[in-house]
Prior knowledge:
Elements: H1 10-24, H2 29-36, H3 40-52, E1 56-60, E2 71-75, E3 80-87, E4 90-96, E5 102-109, H4 116-137, E6 141-148, H5 164-174, E7 180-184, H6 185-196, E8 207-212, E9 216-221, E10 232-233, H7 256-259, H8 261-268, H9 272-278, H10 290-313, E11 318-323, H11 324-327, H12 334-343, E12 354-358, H13 367-379, H14 389-392
Parallel strand pairs: 3-6, 6-7, 8-11, 11-12
Antiparallel strand pairs: 1-2, 3-4, 4-5, 8-9, 9-10
The structure holds zinc ion (ZN).
Amino acid sequence: MSGRFAPRSRRETRAVVLESLLRSGGAFRPLIAKDAQLTEASISRILTELRSEDIIEEIRRPAPYVGGPTALVTLSKNIAVAGIELSNDRLSFGIGDLGGIIDYVERMPASPQLKQSEFERLFGNCLATMTQWTAKRGISIRHAALSIPGYSRANTNPIFTWDMKRLRAFLAEVLEGVPLSITNSVIAQAAFHRYSSTAAYPIEGDHLFLFVGHGVAGVVVNETAPIDTFSPFELGHMVIERNGHACRCGHKGCLEAYTSLKAVSKIIGIAESEVLHQGDGFIEALDLGDDIRTSLRERLFLLGLGLGNALNLHPVSSVVISGWPSLMPVADHDAILEGLDESLLGGFDQDRLKLSFIAPSIGNDPQAALYYAAYCFVRSGGLEAKAEPQAALGENA
Ligand SMILES: [Zn+2]
């Protein structure tokens, strides 16, 4: 891909090749060479090395053109990574392969005001169960990723007001050498969409990815930059009404308090846990009477209003929305445009701003963190398994 950094060290070169495979889901050698900007001879040497370490495999499948290669290169299904998410009022643990196939999931209820000591207890219990499962099968986790709402490079978190130094020390101790990366939930969501469904993703090129789920947050996606360099955009905590609805961050009138899945579940009269259970079909399964539809359109309007304000501060020409708004009838997307039109400088103009939607996979936690873990594994070139816990403890958000 043009614009991508030129590989340097052995680790970087391996990382570029592996990331290309993670993104494509499998490719023939000439394409990998082109994508990684390497010669076919270099690719051949690297693939031999990666195959000997059981990080990649080659499946006999002729390329769809005469004289082409006869083997498709894919990531090995024998590398296990762990995704851990604190989202949707639950702590979810999952183990899967680099292709996102999950073999193990455990979800435990977690309070929205989870104290750090409660988190540590819950995490310890879930980890013990997961460790029993892996020990029984002789599986070793090569990388783990934990996603938390509100997490940033700063040592503060408005959603979970924990001591981040203590969090990192706790995780390093209990994970006993398994490399771990911590990230913001919305960055894990961006990883999920980048690596799980590239064919379905509506946009190529830089854009704002806006996630509207249990939380509401965005991230500016730079197509040629590594995901761990992205910065979260706490759009959900833009105050849009003074003394308005209470938000979990402690303020009142935040956009999230009006447009999150929790806010929507109140309007439709279905518990959020049931919405998570139903997944992306929950709106289709509803009888959207006029009153409910009008209320939901009002919330879409507010989303557009907040989005327009955000874009005045950080202009982009393209926005991709993932969340319940993506599942609404297309005609109702106009309500977002009306909101945008009232706040975006110069008004909404489809020639200047492209708005696209992608299905969110509601209730799939910890799938997003699992993809982030897969990303971190390939980004390390698959060389980190022997790293010391402290050195390996990433802080990617
Ligand atoms: Zn808030």
